[in-house]
């Protein structure tokens, strides 16, 4: 797919015809993280396979539906499952839904992901809000785009995650008696998990947790002017001195359990948006 502004507009018009309307908040649900869908009232759901110009989710833990509805009085559009570079998609395909969200009026973007915890202070099931990130993916979603309609080519990334949203999440977490840690996320290509040596290297460069998503969406969100907040669920402990073989069913189970707490947190934050 060669990305053009016309493709974004075409997709947005299709969704409006399906009952989607201008939305204030966008949501991206990561692996094993789907409880947010239950928080959306009177939801309209459209499979990705029916949406013009959308890729199809190939990860079995991602439902592959786009939802529209309300959380409180706030209109939202939500992705039940995202796209990843390791699926074979281009960076522009992966981030295409973020551009469509912008076209549909979205101003705030909430992202979740499952991540491996390299910081020894992290335990399975912990919620960690992204303070910053390191991008080790081999391509960039802004590469080749010089049309001003897409936004500033040389996008500033000095504050990729919105401070006000972060403060709101922290305040609500205290009210809900929920522990939310902070950390730096590093995004890698995948789909294989890391070796002991790679975990040591990633940790040495300053990363607290590692995953295979989120950063491309955040880059594009910053280009088009969306305020971002992202939270990782720590689903496995990546201690290179005590590394255990990956257990995918356990990862999904841990993500699902923590997802209920994360969804309550995001829901309360979204309800306060104006």
In brief, what are we looking at here?
Strand 3 and strand 4 form a beta hairpin.
pLDDT < 50 runs, ≥5 residues: none
The CATH H-level superfamily is Nucleoside phosphorylase domain
Terminal CA distance reads 35 Å
Tally of extended strands?
Answer: 9
Strand order of the largest sheet: 5-8-7-6-9
CATH topology: Rossmann fold
Number of helices: 8
Structural class: alpha/beta
What percentage of residues falls in helices of 4 or more residues?
A: 25-40%
Q: What is the level 1 CATH name?
A: Alpha Beta
Calculate the mean pLDDT score and round it. 94
Beta fraction of the residues? 15-25%
Tally of distinct domains:
1
Largest sheet: 5 strands, mixed, barrel
Estimate the global geometry from the Cα principal axes.
globular
Notable traits:
single chain, 274 residues, alpha/beta, Rossmann fold, 5-stranded mixed beta barrel, 8 helices, globular
